[in-house]
Every structure is written in structure tokens, then in C-alpha cells.
Amino acid sequence: MILQRTKYQLIQTALTHFSALGLIGARQIGKTTLALELAKQVPSIYLDLENPQDSAKLSDPISYFDLHQDKLIILDEIQTKPDIFRILRGVIDKQRRAGHKFGQFLILGSASVELLRQSSESLAGRIRYIELAPLNAQEIINTPYTMQQLWLCGGFPDSLLAPSAAASLAWRQAFIKTYLERDIPQLGPRIPSETLRRFWIMLAHCHGGLVNAAKLAGNLGVSGQTITRYIDLFVDLFLIRRLQPWHSNVKKRVIRSPKIYVRDSGILHALLNIHSQDDLITNPILGTSWEGFVIDNIASVLPEQADLFFYRTVVGAEIDLLIKHPDGRLIAIEMKCTSSPQLSRGFFEACDDLQVTDRYVVYPGNEKYPLRDNVMVISLLDMLDVIKS
User: Fold this and answer.
1) How far is CA 358 from CA 27, 325, 331, in A?
2) Please, are residues 108 and 76 in contact by the beta-carbon 8 Å criterion?
3) What does the pLDDT look like over 233-278, one tens digit per residue?
4) Residue 132 contacts residue 29 (beta carbons within 8 Å)
5) d(CA 387, CA 138)
6) pLDDT tens across 90-122, in order?
């Protein structure tokens, strides 16, 4: 089953404005499927750079690109061949002079830090990056899949589309194993896979909480600097979200440590051995799992120029998610996994601190209704519409 991705049109349009487009995101998130759908619209050629046969075709990349200069060239898993960026710059500039301006290369990659480091030096002004996130709630409308299934199994297509909950869990466990034993070592760090597994599970238990590098370091038997390096690695692989605190233009004493989230709810649940909806409902992680799920969905539809934060003062004023929207709005969002959400005084104090007028509570229900002080209780789907508008 091919699901329509909300960023399809954005990517299609971006190809008409840039010589190269970088589509980045975690492995198995659907980048290749989306790229091949785009390839059906124009003459194109696809190379998987992890495939030795495809990689061998680029033994003389300049000649190969010249041979196919009238086609969209899709280069998958580009981080395995980083030297290609330097060559792409010359090829793009040559083809620009010949009148071929846009839509020459679609580059797919699973490691943002590698891509950005290479392209910032070689392709500045020639490439645009778009991140493909896990499937969101809008992308399963008019499909057999429910919001509860998406929350439990996560947004990786192979996990959600698995024929059973057991098959979905097995896929996610294999995904975790592959990242630990193959994908991370390919990027250079020589870290024992069992150490990384323990660390990933620790982060899952810290999901939605403040980063405490010293505590994590003590539990893992490494230094605080090593913990920071591990977190950086997981962030760059799109596996962890580091949500920064809002601290500008505030006179109050605020928390300055970031919060940490496992980026996909299905991977979070697999790390914590949550197999079913019943397991999830009875697990202490329920509330923060819903929180991370909502944040993932919101982040997947926000304009690229938007910024995400949380806000917390030392005396308890707090906003779960604060969005600085490019249209100028400052949007405060609380996530409550209950049919009758209530807000603490700290939320209203935080909104007053920052003079936030757009105030929402996202809950698992479908009705939309107001609470006091201009707060609107809203479903996740309705919230996504608000964010996009």
C-alpha cells in the first residue's frame, strides 16, 4: 500500500527551484519510495550507493552524469560516498552554464550531520534540504489505519503496515538491532552495540524529561562529554529529538537544560517492551508517550522556518511545547492523555510570562471546546490544521 505523503508536493516543487534537492530522514522512513514516485513524473535514473553494482557506475562520476544530464539522477544513501559532493558542484555549475538549471539531482540520506557538513562546503546555493518524518495523523486519513495504531506502532511505514501487532513489533526490534550493529558503526564511531542499546533504552526511560548527562554517564560508566557525543549522534541519525528551552526575553529564572524524546512512538514502545495498547495504557510512560507522539506529528507539518521549544521556570511555570511560527505567532501547546483535560496554574503563568495568546490542549478525543483564559481543547488532527494554516 502506497501512502500519500504530505510533503510530496513540496518536494516536487522544490525540484523546480534548485539544481539539487536533499531528502533526509531516518532509514526506512519512506525516502526511496517517495523518490521513486517522483521519478515516475520525469525521465530519471536511480542509484543505490550501498549497492556495489550501482556504486561502481560512479567510478567515473563526471562522465556518468554527463551521459545522463537530461535526467533526474537519484542518489540514495549519499553519506556512503561523501566525496561525490565535491564533484556534484562542478557538474551542476557546468550544466547551469549549458542551460540545465533545476531538478538535476535528488539526493537521499540518513545522516544529517554528514550531509550538511559536505554540502555546506560544496553545494551552498545549489541545494535545498527537506526532512521526511515518520507518517503523521493526516497521512493515514482514508486508510484502514487508526490513530491508536499509529501511536502504538509508530510512523515507519513497514511498522504501521505490518499485518499484525506482533509483526510490527518484530520489524521495530529488527530495525533497532540493525541500527546498533550496522548503521551506526558505518558512520565511524566504534562503540559496542550493547553499550548503545543500553543508552538508547535509558533515553527511552527519560523520554519527555530533562537531559541529565551526569546521571546517564554514571549509569553507563562513561564521561558526561561522552554522553553528549552519544546524544549528538542519535540526534543526527533522526532517532532522538532534543527540544531546547525558551529563554529569550524572559526575566524569570528558567530551566536551561534541553528535554529529550525518542522521535518515533513505535520505536519508543519497542525499546520499553510495550507490545499492545493495553500495555501502553497501564504503563507510566503513557502521558509522555502521547506528548512525544503529538510533538512528532506537529513537527512533521510545520514550515521549515518554525522553531520548537519548551518553557519552564524554576518555580513551576511550564509549557510543554512552544512554537515560534514564521507568521509571527507564538503558540503554546499542552498535551494531555485524558478525555477531560485540566491545566495547572503553571501553564497560565507561563503564557502570561510570554504573553502567548494562542493556547491549546491536544488530547486523544475528537471534540473541540474552550477552557478558561482563551485555551482551546482540540484533537491532534485539528491541531495539525491550525499549525499549517
Assistant:
1) 35, 11, 5
2) yes
3) 899 899 999 999 997 767 778 888 999 999 999 999 999 999 999 9
4) yes
5) 12
6) 888 888 887 776 788 999 988 776 666 666 677
pLDDT score at 68:
92
Residues 6+ apart with CB under 8 A from 69: 95, 98, 100, 104
Query: Given the DSSP bridges, would you call strands 307-312 and 259-262 parallel, antiparallel or unpaired?
Result: unpaired
Handedness of CA 339, 261, 253, 213 (dihedral sign): positive
d(CA 206, CA 228): 15
Residue type, 332: A
Instruction: Look up residue 52 and give its three cell numbers.
Output: 556495489
Q: Which domains does the chain have, with CATH numbers?
A: 8-131 (3.40.50.300), 145-388 (1.10.10.10)
Q: Which residues contact 208 (CB under 8 A, 6 or more apart)?
A: 259, 260, 261, 287, 288, 291, 292
Measured over the CA atoms of residue 10, residue 64, residue 81 and residue 33, the dihedral's sign is positive
Pairwise CA distance, residues 69 & 65, whole Å: 6
> Which residues, in sequence order, are bridge partners of residue 334?
361
Q: Higher confidence at residue 116 or residue 283?
A: 283
Residue type, 128: R
Grid cell listed for 84: 561525490
Q: Percent of the chain at pLDDT above 90?
A: 67
Nearest one of 169, 380, 364 to 279, comparing CA atoms: 169
DSSP 328-370: S-EEEEEE--SSS----HHHHHHHHHHT--EEEEE-SSS--EE
Contacts of residues 141-145 at CB distance under 8 Å and 24 or more positions apart, as own/partner, are 141/381, 143/1, 143/3
pLDDT bin (cut points 50, 70, 90) of residue 205 is very high
Query: Nearest CA to 183 among 52, 22, 26, 23?
Result: 26
Say if residues 31 and 130 touch (Cβ distance below 8 Å).
Answer: no
Residue 312 banded pLDDT, cuts 50, 70, 90: very high
324 forms bridges with which residues in the sheet? 307, 330
In angstroms, rounded to a whole number, what is the distance separating the alpha carbons of residues 140 and 271?
24
**In contact, 255 and 210? CB cutoff 8 Å:** yes
